[in-house]
Amino acid sequence: MKIRHSRVIVTGGAGFIGSHLVDRLLDVDNEVLVIDDFSSGSWNNLAQHRSNARLQVEEADILDEQLMRRLHHGSQFVFHLATRNVRLSLLQPTIVHEVNTTGTLNILKAAAAAGVKGFLYCSSSEVNGTAVQVPMTEDYHFRPETIYGASKLAGEYYTQVFQRSGWLKTVIARPHNNYGPREHYAGILGEVIPRFILLALAGKAPIIFGDGKQTRDFTYVTETADFLVRLLESDEAVGVTFNICRGEEVSISEIAGLIINLVNPSLVPQYLPNRPGDVLRLCGDPTRLRLTLGSSPSISILAGLKETVAWFRRQVPHAPEVLADLQAKNWTMVEAEPWMPSAAEKGK
Q1: Where in the sequence is the domain holding 100, given as residue range(s)?
Q2: Is the link from the previous residue into 269 a cis peptide, with omega within 30 of 0?
Q3: In this structure, is residue 346 part of a structural domain?
Q4: Are the CB atoms for 2 and 26 separated by under 8 Å?
Q5: How many Cβ atoms sit within 10 Å of the Cβ of residue 265?
Q6: Is residue 341 included in any domain, yes or no?
Q7: Number of Cβ within a 10 Å radius of residue 57
Q8: Residues 145 and 193 in one domain
Q9: What tens-digit pLDDT sequence spans the chain (348 residues)?
Q10: Strand duo 215-216 + 250-251: pairing
Q11: For the whole model, what pTM was predicted?
Q12: Fewer CB within 10 A of the terminal residue: the chain, N end or C end?
């Protein structure tokens, strides 16, 4: 089942991964409806498609159940990527819970009512929490460290129920630590790799929280977008959960070192105390993906970082306002919910 010449919905399609998925879907002549509230997505991520009549963008909240039902009418495939992020969940867990759980349930119901051919739920490696041993298979323990991770896991369970009940044909994907062009760098949305890059380009030391031995399984974003489509096209993937990862454990200190060598070898990282709720070790197992589709992400971290550095060098101005958005403790840029003063103090 190829996704060609179809009406496809991408929730969160103006975001980092979502916009690359939109690129992939439009390249093969689909009509794509992006549903995004632009709380984290950006119109700039879709600017290259501004004149493309096959792209429709609806600025909307996935918590609006009736609107979601209307927007899904007539669609054949749905990729659900809309989410609120992990750092927001440290101090404002309620909105993260609502969007990531109730919002996901709304999209599942809307897709089922529309009778879509396939539904992909984009989860997160955060559902696993810190690894005791690696690599982590899809059935490894579920010990999320944050409300974000827990809410993404709840979304997985809801998706599984819709599959088992016969309401939808679904697949669950867990992308691992994506990076690349268009990745968030500003404010509470800012991720580690673009922040390291922009600081280094400005001649400033990358800031590492903790000892830098925390590990991740970094995956280049265009590969993730490709595998999301391939999974929804695969009959063998229906009802199954997949890691999208390289299966390579890379430490934050290693990432800082690679970026420094690419940008400014004279820099030395600055180390600060641990970040709250941080996963300490993570490395996925792509075996199931490889057995099902015949391949898994293969772009090396060095090759991917070279492309990412080149993109940020071209596209993001090294202006004072950009550097001002790179606050070290970016998770403290929102107020804590009233019931959790201790959490607010912990984040200071």
Answers
A1: 7-175+221-244
A2: no
A3: no
A4: no
A5: 9
A6: no
A7: 19
A8: no
A9: 899 999 999 999 999 999 999 999 999 999 999 999 999 999 999 999 999 999 999 999 999 999 999 999 999 999 999 999 999 999 999 999 999 999 999 999 999 999 999 999 999 999 999 999 899 999 999 999 999 999 999 999 999 999 999 999 999 999 999 999 999 998 888 999 999 999 999 999 999 999 999 999 999 999 999 999 999 999 999 999 999 999 999 999 999 999 999 999 999 999 999 988 899 999 999 999 999 999 999 999 999 999 999 999 999 987 677 777 788 888 888 999 999 876 445 444
A10: antiparallel
A11: 0.95
A12: C
CA distance 21 to 33: 12
CA distance 62 to 41: 14
Kindly name the residue from 148, 158, 179, 185 that is annotated as catalytic: 148
145 and 269 both lie in a single domain: no
What total of structural domains would you count in the chain? Answer: 2
Please name the residue that has the structure tokens 């062009």: 181
Query: How far apart, in Å, do the first and last CA atoms of the chain sit?
Result: 51
In a domain, 44, yes or no: yes
CATH code at 61? 3.40.50.720
Which residues neighbour 127 within 8 Å (Cβ) at sequence distance 6 or greater? Answer: 142, 144, 149, 150, 152, 153, 156, 174
Instruction: Note whether 76 and 167 are same-domain residues.
Output: yes
